[in-house]
Amino acid sequence: MTVQQNLLEIDDLTVRLPEGRAARPILDGVSLSVAAGEMVGLVGESGSGKSVACRSVLGLLPERARTDGEVRVAGRDVLTLSRDGLKELRTRQVSMIFQDPRASVNPMRRVGDFLTEGMRAAGVPAAAATDRAEELLDAVGIRDPRGALRRHPHQFSGGMLQRVVIAAALASRPSLLVADEPTTALDVTTQAEVIAILTRLQAERGTGMLFVTHDLELASAICDRVYVMYAGRIVETQAATDLFDRPRHPYTAGLLACTPRVEPDAAPPRPIPGRPVSLAESPSGCAFAARCAHAQERCSVEKPVLRQYDGQGLAACLRADEGILL
Ligand SMILES: Nc1ncnc2c1ncn2[C@@H]1O[C@H](COP(=O)(O)OP(=O)(O)OP(=O)(O)O)[C@@H](O)[C@H]1O
């Protein structure tokens, strides 16, 4: 029997960054996977470690970072790849889309150069690279792609520039896309357009995607599965619809309850009390305990591990099997 290998497997990843003589913990035992063609969400508040987890996939952690665990893309451990191996990974297998498109492009260079440089470096002749760049711009809904190739980034709106960045990320036909809050810097209508483009292209091309957002509702709407992070740890993972209908971790339930709803009979949004903590600040036990309405004494002592309940997903909560959220 052939065992289906995941495209991306992060296995028990721990990241620490040296700070003076000590090392500040950033991620603790993070495990997640993305299968070929699967759209997977990674959700959490600011500072929970989403970007660090994403960066680990492309081997983009700070050089001084100390890591344990493995990050495998198509079976190869990114954390042990040579410089050439990393270059090959980034030019052939994995592309990343960042939050702010203006930070991803060189303002002095034309969009055509930005889109074709990777292809040219891979040996594609100039004319063929230009034709492909035009096709890519057309695929992300940019009108007059040939004219767009001659323009500079400042001649594009934020939304249009993010489309250009998506086109560039797809140029190498990657099997995995990592999108780190790709619409956070855009206005609401533009966000919707960019999400629609990303999900369409992901489905058409069968690209695996790790989609990072702080918006749990958005992740539940567009992803197959979702991981929820809190203070450097994964606290819950489920199929997207199950997570939305039946969260198992009080933090996930809190994120859903604080989202404003437009339905007339909807409950008003309830904010999660307190503020998010980083892994470094989190005491022993469950990092969410101080903000959790269901916490008991043992929650601030015992560290919960991810466990399965009712055959549905995994949650790291000592009380998840008591039906506290029903
Ligand atoms: N290069 C770095 N040097 C020092 N600390 C860092 C570095 N990068 C991240 N951190 C710290 O790691 C923690 C996780 O940061 P990260 O950017 O991954 O969070 P995030 O969930 O992506 O937040 P946001 O949604 O605001 O981007 C934070 O406490 C942050 O301050």
Describe the model:
With 326 residues, the chain is α/β, with parallel strands linked by helices. It has a single domain, classed as 3-Layer(aba) Sandwich (Rossmann fold), CATH 3.40.50.300. The chain has helices at 50-57, 83-93, 101-104, 111-121, 126-139, 145-149, 158-170, 188-205, 216-222, 240-245, 250-257; strands at residues 8-19, 22-34, 39-43, 66-73, 76-77, 94-97, 176-180, 208-213, 225-230, 233-239, 307-309, 312-315. Strands 6-7-8-3-9-10-12-11 form an eight-stranded mixed sheet, with helices on both faces. The protein has a four-stranded antiparallel sheet with strand order 2-1-4-5, with helices on one face. α4 (111-121) crosses α5, α4 runs parallel beside α7 and α7 (158-170) packs parallel to α8. The longest helix is centred in the middle third of the chain and has 18 residues, at 188-205. The chain is globular, with a radius of gyration of 21 Å. It binds adenosine-5'-triphosphate. Residues 8-256 form the ABC transporter domain. InterPro entries: AAA+_ATPase, ABC_Ni/Peptide_Import, ABC_transporter-like_ATP-bd, ABC_transporter-like_CS, Oligopep_ABC_C, P-loop_NTPase. This is ABC transporter ATP-binding protein.
